[in-house]
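re: ur question from yesterday

yeah so i grabbed the chain u mentioned. its 150 aa long if i counted rite. heres the sequnce exactly as i have it in my notes:
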Amino acid sequence: MTDADEFRWENLDERLLSPKLHEVSEEMQKRSVEGERKAAFDTHQSGNAAGYLTRLFDFQERLTDEWAERLYAAHCEAWSQQNRTVTPAFIRAVRDRAIIQLIGVRKSTVQFGVGLPCQTNRRATEPRRSRRMESPHGPARSALEPKTRS
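ran it thru and got these structure tokens back, copy pasting raw so excuse formatting
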């Protein structure tokens, strides 16, 4: 492995990356709140209260995929602004550190948000739905998987 193939987090300039991450985070958090409201409104309009969690989880899954893509793009842009090449090692590092962490935080946030009303109403959450966020088959994860062939 050559020096060009290696990636070290300390070489990524936080002064370039932080504003990009902040902008993405602010926008996605606003969209999350709007999406939750829309899921509740659509559920109310349909008259089928059982559809709320499905609508919410579908929305949150799409939002998390887009958030991960934008997070990855921000890292790539900051790295490229430093006249560095995006290598497989860089892609794996961003996936393993930033993207996986984002997915974990989003999953916990959604579970917590769903858990509070469910505890209040004495309903159980749908564990099979929350596992969707852990699926290794989401678009954001598959796009960042290194391609290997036997």
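noticed a couple things. DSSP finds five helices and no strands in the chain. also Residues 13-25+50-143 form one domain.
anyway ttyl
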